[in-house]
Structure formats: structure tokens, C-alpha cells
Write a sequence for this structure.
């Protein structure tokens, strides 16, 4: 059997690389036994943040849990978030790969959005929580918290944390999964996210002009996060999208805008079309990023970077940006849940971080694991095995977490926070996230004032500018 690296499920590689799967097919079969149920209450299904939490949860979970995602409590409620261009919430869930049901199974783990009581079931249940700039999950048996106003990224963070916990429970690689709180403060990473933070400001400003470098796992998560924000109808926004690659079938396992039968469209055009249907003005740059890249002074001066190429990262400060927020993901069986953030200018130059030493780093050799030995026995040549072994393990909920922090860093600076120079953390222990801050630097890269009067009403959010194609 021929195994195409461009069709390989990146999460299945975890079980191949760790030696837990005897074949690539066995690894996918493990994921096919992973599934979850989502319950959302009547109130949550009609709110902006409730829908952001639900759609983000469905989107990230179905890419990892191939057994299915059941959703209880949705139907013909109008969609009030730009994350979907479908008219009803039920249609939005279905478009993202979830299955709306009236009666749920009781042997799957469950996520609860709102105040619904957890079922009597041996499987664990989590409740999504968000308030201010904080989001996460707690065991559903804990007392529900009062509904609070929150930044749109907070329910998205709750969804990312939830998928991380459910995956760990299914995979059996964290004993506390299902029995602990897991979440993050976007305003103050590393601070206790369940505690109120009086320093969190209301959301008054949004970035207007950005350059997105790389449109894979991280780049598509950047787009998802930006679309969740309450841009008003007709807002003057410009996004420059840069990538040289095409979409591939394997992207569906890691990237939030990919689809199962993925056409091989240019990533810039695929992501650009998705953003344009949500009211953003989009410009395209279909070349590799490197030392030759030069920003024109009229093009966006702030950039979000999400590439895994050390040579490109080393050149981030050479292109003429005023601000770059770079997000990175860990690798290998022990590090694929890790994430990091760097801001430039910063205490250390990008060239020093990703110079010649980093560029020549050697990844662990996994080609001796049973799944790869089986490939050789089945006639896959050494070059093919090496190519497949070199692909990284990928999960969408880690890229989403890193993207939330990266977009959150722009929002933090727009609201007067000290700049975060470096952030490091892991979905295995979000409470241990570490952030190093520098001086307060005014954000002068283009923004939109939105004021603050609580969550925007459905008629005023960018959702109304969406057009169906």
C-alpha cells in the first residue's frame, strides 16, 4: 500500500512515532475510536461568545477525534458570529463536521457550554468557562460560574483547552485529564485564569492592518481568531497573506480552514476567500518569505508569523516591519503540545534565535518504530519512509492556542499592556505558562476604535457583511 505524506493524518503520527501503533492504519483506527459530545444550553446557543465557543470546539475537535462529534441543543438559532456564513447554528455545526442530535450517547466524554447539569455517566465531562480575557475548562461537577462579559478570544481559548483535555483523556497520556481545571489568561499568561483580574480592560480597539506570514496550522488559526473579533460592518481592514504553498489533504488534520476533500488551491487564495467572505480586504503575496522580502511603507507594518522554517524566521527583522509577533509549535512525541511566542523588536534578535545552529537541528529518528518497519516490509523504499517519518506531529488545538496568544498580544498592546517578549507553555500544563514582559510600547500600526458597550448585538457585527459564494 502506498502512503502519501500529503495525505497522512498528522495526529495519527503521534501513535506511529511513539511506537503505540503497529501500522499507519492502526494509528488512524485509534483516532476513529476518539469522539465527544457537546451540550449547549438554550441561552448559550444564541449568544456571540456561546457560538464562538461551540463552533471553535467543533472545528478543532472533529479534526482530531475521528469517531465523531455529537452536538446537543442546537437547531435553527440564527448565526451571530462571522465564524460561519451559514444562516442557522445547526447548519454551521454540520458544515464544520459536527452532528446535531436530540439524544446523545453516554459513553463519550462531554463538553458543556452553559449551565446544563452533567449526565450520570462514567465518562468525564468538562464545562467551558470564560470571563474578561480568560478562558478554559473545569470538571463539569464544579459549580457553574455566573455568565460574564468576555473578549471573543476567551471562549475560543476555552474550546482549545477543552479539546486538549479530551484528547489527553482518550490518548491516556495524562492522569489528571478530566479531573482538573485547564485554561489561560490572554491578558496575563501564567496568572490563575479562574481568578478575576481587575487589571483587564474592556475591548475598545482592534488591529486594522496586518501581514500574515505562513498559512498552515498557525496561519489559518490566526484567520479564525481575527474573524471571531467584533469588527463592525464596513470596517477598514487590510490583511496581506503570504505563502508559497498549496493546500493538501493532510492539512485537514491540523488547519482550521481546511476541508476533508481538500482541493489543491494556493493557501493564499483559499484563506483569502474565506476572509473576504467575512468582510476583510485581502492582498496576496505568493512567494517564500526570506531575506529578500521587503515591505513597502504603505503595506501593513505589523506581522503575525506562523512558519516552521528556521531560515525564514531568522529573516523576520529584515523585511521592514515595525512589529512582528511570531508563534511556534513544539515537535516530537514529548513536545507536540508545546507552544511559544516571540515579539520583535525584542531583547534578542530573530537571527540569533534561529541562526545556523537552529537551522541545522536534527529531529529525533522515529524510522525504527513498528509502523515504519511495517512500511519497509510492505515495500516502501527508504526514501519514502524517511519522508513520512520527517513529517511533524500536528494537532489543531495547540496551533489555536498559540494563535490566540499571538492575536491577543496585538490586543494587549492596543490596550496599554507591557509587551510580551517571550511566552512558553504547553497544553499538558497551561497553568505553567511563562511570559517575559518588556516595556509598554504604544501600538502605532493601524487600529479601529470600537468602544465598549458589552458584547455587540448581532446586527452590528461583521457577520452582517458576509456574502455566500
Amino acid at each position: 500500500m502506498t502512503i502519501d505524506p500529503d495525505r497522512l493524518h498528522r495526529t495519527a503520527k503521534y501513535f506511529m512515532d511513539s511506537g503505540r501503533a503497529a501500522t499507519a492504519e492502526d494509528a488512524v483506527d485509534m483516532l476513529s475510536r476518539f469522539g465527544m459530545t457537546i451540550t449547549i444550553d438554550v441561552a448559550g446557543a444564541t449568544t456571540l461568545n456561546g457560538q464562538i465557543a461551540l463552533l471553535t470546539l467543533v472545528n478543532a475537535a472533529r479534526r482530531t477525534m475521528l469517531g465523531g462529534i455529537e452536538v446537543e441543543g442546537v437547531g435553527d438559532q440564527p448565526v451571530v458570529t462571522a465564524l460561519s456564513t451559514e444562516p442557522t447554528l445547526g447548519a454551521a455545526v454540520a458544515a464544520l463536521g459536527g452532528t446535531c442530535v436530540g439524544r446523545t450517547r453516554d459513553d463519550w466524554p462531554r463538553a458543556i457550554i452553559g449551565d446544563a447539569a452533567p449526565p450520570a455517566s462514567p465518562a468525564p465531562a468538562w464545562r467551558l468557562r470564560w470571563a474578561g480575557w480568560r478562558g478554559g475548562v473545569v470538571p463539569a461537577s464544579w459549580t457553574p460560574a455566573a455568565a460574564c462579559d468576555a473578549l471573543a478570544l476567551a471562549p475560543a481559548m476555552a474550546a482549545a483547552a477543552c479539546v486538549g483535555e479530551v484528547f489527553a483523556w482518550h490518548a491516556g497520556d495524562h492522569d489528571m485529564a478530566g479531573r482538573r481545571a485547564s485554561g489561560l489568561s490572554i491578558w496575563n499568561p501564567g496568572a490563575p485564569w479562574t481568578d478575576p483580574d481587575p487589571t483587564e480592560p474592556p475591548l475598545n480597539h482592534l488591529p486594522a492592518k496586518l501581514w500574515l506570514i505562513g498559512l498552515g496550522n498557525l496561519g489559518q488559526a490566526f484567520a479564525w481568531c481575527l474573524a471571531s473579533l467584533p469588527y463592525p460592518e464596513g470596517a477598514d481592514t487590510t490583511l496581506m497573506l503570504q505563502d508559497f504553498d498549496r493546500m493538501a489533504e493532510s492539512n485537514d488534520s491540523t488547519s482550521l480552514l481546511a476541508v476533508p476533500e481538500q482541493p489543491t488551491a494556493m493557501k493564499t487564495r483559499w484563506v483569502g476567500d474565506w476572509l473576504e467572505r467575512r468582510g476583510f480586504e485581502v492582498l496576496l503575496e505568493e512567494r517564500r518569505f526570506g531575506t529578500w522580502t521587503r515591505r513597502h511603507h504603505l503595506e501593513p507594518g505589523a506581522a503575525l508569523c506562523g512558519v516552521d522554517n528556521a531560515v525564514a524566521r531568522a529573516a523576520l527583522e529584515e523585511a521592514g516591519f515595525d512589529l512582528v509577533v511570531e508563534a511556534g509549535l513544539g515537535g516530537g512525541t514529548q513536545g507536540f503540545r508545546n507552544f511559544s511566542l516571540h515579539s520583535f523588536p525584542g531583547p534578542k534578535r530573530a537571527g540569533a534565535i534561529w541562526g545556523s545552529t537552529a537551522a541545522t537541528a536534527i529531529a529525533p529518528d522515529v524510522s525504527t518504530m513498528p509502523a515504519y518497519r511495517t512500511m519497509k516490509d510492505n515495500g516502501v523504499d527508504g526514501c519514502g519512509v524517511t519522508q513520512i517519518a520527517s513529517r511533524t506531529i500536528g494537532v489543531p488545538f495547540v496551533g489555536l492556542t498559540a494563535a490566540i496568544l499571538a492575536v491577543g498580544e496585538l490586543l494587549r498592546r492596543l490596550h496599554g499592556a507591557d509587551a510580551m517578549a517571550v511566552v512558553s507553555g504547553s497544553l499538558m500544563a497551561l497553568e505553567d505558562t511563562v511570559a517575559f514582559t518588556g516595556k509598554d510600547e504604544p501600538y502605532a500600526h493601524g487600529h479601529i476604535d470600537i468602544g465598549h458597550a458589552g458584547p455587540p448585538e448581532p446586527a452590528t457585527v461583521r457577520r452582517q457583511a458576509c456574502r455566500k459564494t
In short: The two ends are 38 Å apart (CA to CA).
